[in-house]
## 1
Amino acid sequence: MKHFSFLKRKEPLNDTQLLMAITIGIFLIMYVSAIMLFGGGFNHAQQIFDMLNDNASLIIVSCGLTIVMIGGGIDISVGAVTSLTVMSCVLYLNRGGNIYVSILLALGIGLAFGLVQGFLISYLEIQPFIVTLAGMFFARGMTTILSVNPQKAAHKTFNALRAKKIEISWLGYKARNGNLVPARIELGVLVALVCVIFVFLMLRYIRMGRNTYAMGGNQQSALMLGINVKRTRFMTYVLSGLLSGIAGYVFMLHTGAGNATNAAGMEMNAIASSIIGGTLLTGGVGNVIGTFFGTLSLTTIKKIVVTSGLNDPWWQSITTGGMLCFFILLQSVVLGKRSKKKNT
Amino acid sequence: MKKTTKKFSFNGFGQLTIPLIAIALLVVFNLIRDPGFFSIGISHNSNGNAVLSGNLISIINGASELAILAMGMTLVTAACGGQDISVGAAAAIAGSVFVKVLKASSSISGVTVILAFLCACVVAMIFGSFNGTLVAVFRIQPMIATLILYTCGRSIAYWINGGATPTVTSSIVNAIGSFIPGIPVPTPVIIVVVMGILFWLLFHFTSLRLFTQSVGINGSAARLNGIDARFIKLLSFIILGVCVAVSGCIGVSRLGLINHETLLLDVEMDTILAVAIGGNNLGGGKFKLSGSVIGAYVIQMLTITLYAMKVSSTDVKAYKAIVIILLVVIGSPVIKEKFSRFLARLSDKRRKVSVKGAEE
């Protein structure tokens, strides 16, 4: 550690900042080495925008999960709620619904799940894993009850909204036939970025956010400080539910169809991105910016696997697992060393 | 007076109250819906053996893998204060190894089946000790540590089989999955009983139960008392590995093929649910294996009941969720406390009335 002189600031980095710095650093190393090794696709700005386009909803869901995990809880219903939101909004739009009402519907579904789960967990003191597991089962079951078959959105205004993309010409690249292809960003990415910034500011400057850190760090002392622990915990789940609803709408903007298997396994991907981003499941440590880069790292490794020609279907998840293992061990070792230093 | 209120309070059976109430409710519900639901008949299967059949048998038979996994999961939960979410993936790996070894031998005899099972056991124990090392040595939360294997386990299983779903045709494997000729009870049920007896012997002749509970309640205090907390945590994961191998092999034998995608799909969630319904604290500490096993049967009975009510297999989850929420709400500490306070108030009122009456 002696050589890292730039780490020696007047105020040493706290756990949250250190883990986030590691994540961002590793993401940059990974991306730069990908450019050097494979060049080609990784050179274009569009590659990053594609990663964002594909994962906007995952980023939003991970934000909500990060809040819950900082508060010391867990929410595994997020993927299923996203899926339910997509399915119900598509069905509503296909019956000639209004596009504004469909947005309200998405928010409402997310909020409803958040409210019920938050109430059960914080006020009835039921274990969060069980409650959100039941929430996951319920949302998945409701999705198939609504429709087993895939449903494509056939709503004019919605499809116009879906086709809307922000084009940045100076970040574009020349295609083989000489035409300039501008970089394309979907609207969902903007929503995702707004969510990230909002959650970041909330966790940092608003009382509820700071209470969340206090509660996750040590619930007993938070209670002694006069923090309303129950309400804070309730609010973390409500926010997570609400963000899943938003993620559902963004998911729909990206795919344009409802399917019973939508967002399958998203909860575990979201947990993985939060962990890679430096959030600890024990609570009290974490940052939503880290989560954002965690999602990007997860996507980058998948892209690298695909580009490097390991086409067998098992390599993607095996490498993802390996990377997860690496990050988890790294965090454990780093934090273990720091706590030893503190004690001596 | 206080003593009597305590006796009649909600905690009559200790932690087994909720699972027993759940089973009783399900039984009564089924009997009202269809009085013949639990009738057991004797039928002849394709091999001409006389075997027991009926809904009750299919419930007990179908929950075998879940019950075995729940036993191991209870130990892990008690020792580490967290759950292993990779059991389904690890079972897929164990099943793949089982099939791989069987396929490698020219003819399948009893010895090769035992050999294959032992190989599966060893592999599952290695993966268990991988998880256990992460949890015990590196002090990583169990759920996160096992997330690694959860992510890549099924892919490893796929890789072991070289991207195929091979089938095994053998009368011995078939007998493990369904019935041994001459015995009317399904073999998986016998295996559950054997596993239960093994666990009972383990707890009876060693101090594992005491050690596990003390590690779960306060790890550092246990260490100061001379218990190797790391070893106990690691051991719980290795024992879970054995359970995983057994249930994986049962799962493979039932179908006669290994499908890495669908073998024991989502079983990890059901297993954790079984442990929770059994009244065990998911934060570690005291535990009861019987509670988890009953929890497993509650889940299976619920599923079979819903199937019998002609709910489609994809929709079952939604109804399951409602029942789970009802169960945990009844079992929640806040509701319990309110209920016992309500009972106490009732008895207080009665006493006051009787005292007033006496004064007058």
## 2
Amino acid sequence: MSPNLSRRDLIRLAGAAAAAPVLSACAGAPPAPSAAAPGTFTVYWNAGHDYAAYRKVIAEFEQANKVKVNLQKYQWPDLRTRLLADFASGTVPDLVEEPGGWVQEFAISGNARSLQDFVDRDGGAMGFPADWQPVTVERNSYQGKVYGVQLHLTCNTLLYNKAMLREAGLEPPSTWEEFLAAARKLTKDGVYGVALNQDHTYVWPWLIQAGVTPYDPATGEIMGPREAAVEALQFQADLVHKHKVAPVPVSSTDYSGPQKLFSAGRAAMILTGPWDLDPIRKTSPDLELGVAPPLKHRTRATQAAGVSLFVPAKAARPELSWDFVKRVTAAEVERAATAETGMLMPRKSWAELSEVRSDPVTKVFADALAIAQDPSQQVRLTGQLGKWDEQLKVMYQQVLIQNQPAAEALAAFTRTAEGFLK
Amino acid sequence: MSVRTPRTLAGRYARTAYLFLLPAILFFAAFFYLPIGNVVATSLRTGPQADQWAGLGNYADALGDPAVRHSFLVTVAFAVMVVIGSIVLGLALALALDQPLRGRVVFRVLLLVPYLTSVAIVGLLWRNILDPELGVLNRVLAGLGLPGQQWLNTAPLLTIACVTLWQSVGYTMVLFLAGLQGIPETYHEAARIDGADAWRRFWRITLPLLAPTTLFVSVMAVISGLQAFGQAYIITNGGPGDATDLSVFHIFNVAFRTRDFGYSSAQSVLLLVVIVAFTLVQLRAGRRGEVTY
């Protein structure tokens, strides 16, 4: 660099460097290629759900409709960024897979198309909504109209290393007290009794089991009863910091940390969903995997989760989009996807399939679906789920990772949430 | 319409210069200045579609928002660490590799490689290295009989600042090397004849003559520090809690997670004002320290 760089040069250089990236970051994405190009059917899909069963559906769909499916795969945060940019530009895909919660959000904002006319016409033939678990219809509806169709219905339960529990002379724990006792006994020689997830969505089974209602729109109460919420949060923090039966989680966008520890034989138990079954089986084929029902505290319950499909309001060919929805949610496709990956499905008839009932892993998950609740429903309907999730993430990590007293962190969270839920 | 030819030589030079500059001007206008204008316009609106007029309401909200204040303070602390580290480490490495050492070119290249690597790759790499349970770094420490560390939990901001320095210090070193090689050797020879030792020559000759380089490095480090995003996005997700909620990451979340484009745009404009103010202050202060021999 020249030592005689002029002030004007520096100002010019610094000003350009300062202004451009910061501001352009918020200016929306560059114009996307037309998602609705004739002959091309664009679908936004989660990168982890590219199953052979769905590829077969795509091939049949392409042949039947004489289109080429452009399956664009994303991680959830990237999919959201792309989708919001698309909404702003007006160039949208034909169909979107979403991680749960977006359907109502985008129905409220006018970005999702109501599917009620299609449901009225074809619902009987495809078994919708009669054959879908009620929670999956409720979380995809807004003001009495269906805006999305559930593709997978998942829940969180207890996965354990059978060999470790057998060596310790333990049965799978059923209650929080038994869980703590087992974790204490299993923690030794570089192995943790349990590994907890840093991702805030993993807090819900604990809160539901403690009897907590996240938000009651009738009374405006947040996280009530408060003592139960504090107890649930503090119980998890104590597993890490007081009893030292779990490693301190690390904040990250990656939620596979506990699964990796479990697969590596460094944790005896984890609380997770069916999405971790495949990685565990692939990375640790010799691990004796056990699955137990969700834990019980005041009640035995867990969180209903899973992905849905929706059609953007500006999608050019909604009839074609609906045809894809019907094909990919067909009973035989559900069956094939479960056989391929172990994924759980939203149809009531799926839960009664002989292969589901006879599989020791899938059966436990399928039974748990009956006690699965959707905790974010009431918050979603306020249109403030994004802010809620941001604050919840901060609060959960302050308690779980930074060991801030649960009562203090929860009080700060509810104060903030009261502000934006008014 | 006929195009008038400038009559003077200077006019003709200027026209040629503008013609050469035209592609760059068009590029910047299309991809930077128009989006900037769009952001300023969006900052005056509100709602999920940013379609309701808000006037200066977003700016007023941002100035009174404790989360915005917190993320700004976190960002300033991060930028201070990066600026000081960039100057001290970059200069130290440049001084070391300015010596007639064998293999110095190889070292220079090795130090520059991280700078050429994407922040996403660097972030993923260090996220895995720093994992307290499965990461390489704690295994190395264990091999040395030292206790493992919770790098990203006990000092998350310092840790991501160190990762940033690891990535960027090679570039800073190259800038300082260029500055060092621009200092005439005759100054050092004269000082040696006058009996000045190496330490004195460094303080009285090298450092003052590196002032323009130091100013440039510090200005660029402040700008990149205040604009840091990938480190929080890839390595820590802003956590634990909000410990690494850097300003641009915060703005990104307001836009794409809470879906408030008007509010995020207002915060972007405020951050721009802060960066420009910092830069001008630095330039003014830096120019006072310049010397010529």
